[in-house]
Amino acid sequence: MKIISAKYLTSAVKADQYPETGFPEFAFVGRSNVGKSSLINSLLVRKKLVKTSSTPGKTQMINFFKVNNELIFTDLPGYGFAKVPARVQKEWQNMIEQYLTGRKTLRLVIFIVDMRRKPTDLDLKTKEWFDAIGIDFVLVATKADKLSQPERNRQMKIIRERFMEGSDQKLIAYSSKSNRGRKELWNCLTKKLASPA
Ligand SMILES: Nc1nc2c(ncn2[C@@H]2O[C@H](COP(=O)(O)OP(=O)(O)O)[C@@H](O)[C@H]2O)c(=O)[nH]1
Ligand SMILES: [Mg+2]
Question: Spelled out in words, what is the top-level CATH class assigned to the domain 8-194?
Fold first, then answer.
């Protein structure tokens, strides 16, 4: 897709604050610091549309971005940041659950993991939860540039086995630094747009 415009719309913590554009929506989900914001910037070929940070746990709201006056990207708060008190974690979780289960225009979740790591229990639980409530997602293993080719092959195999066992979901290798995987992921998104809601 050719990116003509990409702009920040609004941020929300509850449903009555979501923008009512009616545009199909893609949500970016993953642990804090996994590279969600960087991935969105990479997809949109914008260096600083979404603030990235090396300090995990900073994005605490759902941030909405309008792309080409035809679709919406949402940057969801990262889950599983250990230093955050349990009560706050629970609030984040509720916010994400309310959004993922209630947002009618949501078409696909882009579920992001770090290619260098084994999926955590929390990643696996999140995946099981998506499956249980019927949320359609594509798995993206990012920070691919931080590994050598043999390491990438090994990690992709581990992620596929642990995570995607028995499912036909897509797994895409990505780097927000080199934009590797950008075309493949966009293909996935535009295919989703073309299929019935
Ligand atoms: N080398 C490399 N660094 C990345 C990549 N994606 C994210 N990062 C870095 O990882 C850190 C966290 O990224 P960010 O997008 O803010 O993560 P978020 O918390 O999930 O939104 C930042 O320092 C980014 O520069 C990638 O594909 N390659
Ligand atoms: Mg972020």
Answer: alpha beta
Q: What is the pLDDT of residue 133?
A: 83
The answer to whether the CB of 41 is under 6 A from ligand 1 is no
Find the helix or strand (DSSP H, E) in which 73 lies: strand 71-75
Q: Which tokens in the block code for residue 33?
A: 């610091």
What's the average model confidence in pLDDT over 100-128?
Answer: 91
pTM, two decimals, is 0.92
- Which amino acid belongs to residue 116? R
How far is it, in rounded angstroms, from Cα 52 to Cα 170? 26
Which H or E run includes 65? strand 62-67
Return d(Cα 32, Cα 113) in angstroms, integer.
Answer: 10
Query: 185 CB less than 6 Å from ligand 1?
Result: no
pLDDT at position 83 = 63
